[in-house]
Amino acid sequence: MAPWVEAEFSALNPLRTLWLTLAAAFLLILLLQLLPPGLLPGCAIFQDLIRYGKTKCGAPPRPAACRAFDVPKRYFSHFYIISVLWNGFLLWCLTQSLFLGAPFPSWLHGLLRILGAAQFQGGELALSAFLVLVFLWLHSVRRLFECLYVSVFSSVMIHIVQYCFGLVYYVLVGLTVLSQVPMDGRNGVVIHCNHRIPFGDWFEYVSSPNYLAELMIYISMAVTFGFHNLTWWLVVTYVFFSQALSAFLSHQFYKSKFVSYPKHRKAFLPFLF
């Protein structure tokens, strides 16, 4: 096994253990479904738990005891209501912490520690977690809109266990994103207002990863519009040069202020500029 894989598994925490267990469980379920029909487990409860919607209709007849735990599939919208509210709250907390220096609520801080949030210096960049949380929240808003105004749900059902799992999933996934922000910088306490040389992750390559991330966001939008949308690529061109200018000026500031500033670090584009 590669050294980095061994290191990752040696650092298993409650969250990693949970996701690893879920992945292994669903892999096992998939492998069971690939067995010849004669060897496939015939337990009605097992089949009822892994099927939902139209796949329940093609399954063997379901006992009345199983049907007692059915809820309408249209309740899928509840998943995204929870996600929009909960992950919107987490996004608000992270935004307050990153940009205003406000601490997380004490109960949230404690919960993240219990779940095994990163507690080491220079871990995953807080900006990356912020962007992922933004994308997760926007995805949830889009899915909620689709559930309310686009999707046409028939009378098919899901099991109450599947329903509860879906609710818990979107709570856990938001906490997982937030747990990637190192605990040493999560309490939001402002130590001082002096400038220091930043280190770790993207800072090892460019002086202003926030400007690079801004460019990447607009490029992703351009890809969404299509590669032939000239208007948006002109917007991207503007963003490129405006962010490059800001990054260059910041880079010059750091170089003038710190004699020991890393010489391999570029201003805006890794290894290039």
Task: Describe the structure concisely.
With 273 residues, this protein is mainly alpha-helical. It has helices at 3-10, 14-33, 44-50, 54-57, 64-67, 76-100, 106-114, 126-149, 160-178, 209-225, 230-257; strands at 70-72, 157-159.
Description:
The chain has 273 residues and is mostly helical. Helices cover 60% and strands 2% of the residues. The protein is built from eleven helices and two strands; from the N terminus they run αααααβαααβααα. A two-stranded antiparallel sheet has the order 1-2. α6 (76-100) packs antiparallel against α8. It is elongated and about 75 Å long. It starts with a helix and ends in a 16-residue tail after the last helix.
Helix/strand layout:
Elements: H1 3-10, H2 14-33, H3 44-50, H4 54-57, H5 64-67, E1 70-72, H6 76-100, H7 106-114, H8 126-149, E2 157-159, H9 160-178, H10 209-225, H11 230-257
Antiparallel strand pairs: 1-2
Helix pairs in contact: 6-8, 6-9, 10-11
Mean pLDDT: 78
> Any low-confidence stretches, pLDDT <50, length ≥5?
1-10, 120-124
Shape by Cα distribution = elongated
- SS class: mainly alpha
Give the strand content: under 5%
Query: Compute the gyration radius: what is it?
Result: 24 Å
| Number of distinct helices | 11
Name the helicity range. 55-70%
SSE string, helices as H and strands as E: HHHHHEHHHEHHH
Distance between the termini: 37 Å
Strand tally: 2
> Strand order across the biggest sheet?
1-2
Largest sheet entry: 2 strands, antiparallel
